[in-house]
Amino acid sequence: MTRLNRNHLTILPLSERRHKMSVVDVYALDAKTPPNENEHLRVVAERIAQARRRGKPVIWMMGAHVMRRGNSRFIIDLMERGILTHLATNGACAIHDFELAHIGATLEDVEDYIKDGKFGNWEETGRYLNAAITQGYRDKIGFGEAVGRLIETGGGYQLPIPFPHRDISMFAAAYRLGIPFTVHKGIGYDITEQHPSADYAAIGWTTGEDFLRFAYSISQLEGGVFLNLGSAVMGPEVYLKSLSMARNIAAQRGEEIRHFTTANFDLINFPNFQEEGQPTDAHYYHRPKKTILIRTVKDGGESYHISGDFSVTVPQLYRLIIATLP
To answer: Among residues 228, 310, 269, which one has the least CA distance to residue 36?
Structure first.
């Protein structure tokens, strides 16, 4: 069967790309941001603090838009303070994190570059990230760990890869601190798969390894907190399968994973987020609501929905958490 030959692509350097985000758009920890009046935000912060005081996990699942709204330093600080015990995301977040650390800019203009096929066809992003994943496959480590190792160590390749903005890399911080940061993706979801150097077997194996690492963290969730920020499909689906496997094994041991807190952060507002509704209701099919806020916490857990822009809700959550610390 005929297929497209990636070797025919024109691949351009990142120096020729225009960017919509740079390091100046990343919040400082003391930056002033608008308040969020959601009463549940304070409760979520308290549940997070309680979980960590008891040695229970706090798992942070997010889409790429969370970091694109300038929140990297808040997330890194929560890792450094021992608040976040596992982070999980998609391939796009890894790409943005890499590009910010490498060149101090990211977020290309898709509408402009798709017109003539420039979109996604960039050398450094494809070359270096794919090299990291291929080496990660050889070393039998996960996708996220491979990305973190690349940024934290400079890659260890023949020519050192500069990362002048490593300090705002969440992946580098997680690698340095020994905190799991898993990447959950599919082939063709991200621009790195366009590059001729992409090894699809390596990508599949390393993201599969990350799925099992994430599932292990979910198996420890009793008494902990799971947060899903801005992931409409990947987050709830990976969480759902992981929880099912974890409960399956726990049941064989006479144990339960039922008493935990979930929180969903989204631009979408659900006035009645704890009511599943009817199949005629469009919100009935929204996976974060159905899976994270209702079905998986029906028998002992609690859930909260926080609506608002991530440039407001994440900084506010960060400050509320910090305020609970001794």
So the answer is: 310
Q: What is the pLDDT of residue 158?
A: 57
d(CA 262, CA 256): 16
pLDDT on residue 137: 97
Q: Distance between CA atoms of 220 and 308, rounded to whole angstroms? A: 29
Q: Answer for the pair 106, 21: CB distance below 8 angstroms, yes or no.
A: yes
Angle at 227 between CA 280 and CA 288, to 5 degrees: 10
Q: Which segments of the chain does DSSP mark as H helices, in order?
A: 39-53, 65-68, 72-80, 91-103, 110-113, 123-139, 143-153, 170-177, 200-219, 234-252, 287, 310-324
Rounded to the nearest 5 percent, the helix, strand and coil shares of the chain are 50, 10, 40
Q: Which residue has the tokens 């709830």?
A: 236
Per-10-residue mean pLDDT, the chain, length 326? 96 97 98 89 98 98 98 99 99 99 97 96 97 96 98 76 97 99 98 98 99 99 98 96 99 98 92 69 76 95 96 97 91
CA–CA separation, 197 and 157 (whole Å): 15
Distance set, CA 303 to CA 100, 138, 204, 287 (Å) = 33, 40, 32, 14
Instruction: Give the β-pairing of 21-22 and 105-106.
Output: antiparallel
- In this predicted structure, what is the pLDDT of residue 280? 64
Bridge partners of 262, per DSSP, are 226, 303
What are the tokens at 19?
Answer: 């960017």
Torsion 66-180-212-253 (CA) sign: negative
User: CA-to-CA distance for 25 and 67, rounded, in angstroms?
Assistant: 10
Residue 163: phi and psi, rounded to 5, are -135, 75
Domains, the chain, with CATH or none = 38-324 (3.40.50.10690)
Determine the pLDDT at residue 111: 95
| pTM as predicted | 0.96
Query: Residue 48 and residue 20: Cα distance in Å, rounded?
Result: 33
